[in-house]
Amino acid sequence: MTYTLVIDSRAIQDVQEAIDYYDNQQVGLGKRFEAVLNKSLLLLKKIPYFEFVTMMFAVYP
């Protein structure tokens, strides 16, 4: 089953600003960011309940 992904126009504007920012930092970095974002959005569209889990570790002496 495939779901429809709806992205608010403000989010699209934010993404474009991020792409522009990354391109200003390093040539081609904006395209890399956009590619990773698109890949993530396609995965989210296929599996809407998918989560990225981040583990936080604390190391004590």
Please give the number of β-strands: 0
- Order of helical and strand elements: HH
Helix content: 55-70%
Which structural class fits the helix and strand makeup?
mainly alpha
Tally the helices: what do you get? 2
Low-confidence stretches: none
Tally of distinct domains: 1
> What distance separates the N and C termini?
50 Å
| Rg | 16 Å
Question: Major sheet: size, sense and barrel closure?
Answer: none
Which strand-content bin applies to the residues? under 5%
The overall pLDDT, averaged over residues, is 85
Q: So what's the overall shape?
A: extended
Molecular structure report:
The protein is mainly α and 61 residues long. It has one domain (1-61). 57% of the residues lie in helices and 0% in strands. The chain contains two helices and no strands. Helix 1 packs antiparallel against helix 2. The longest helix has 18 residues, at 29-46. The mean pLDDT is 85.
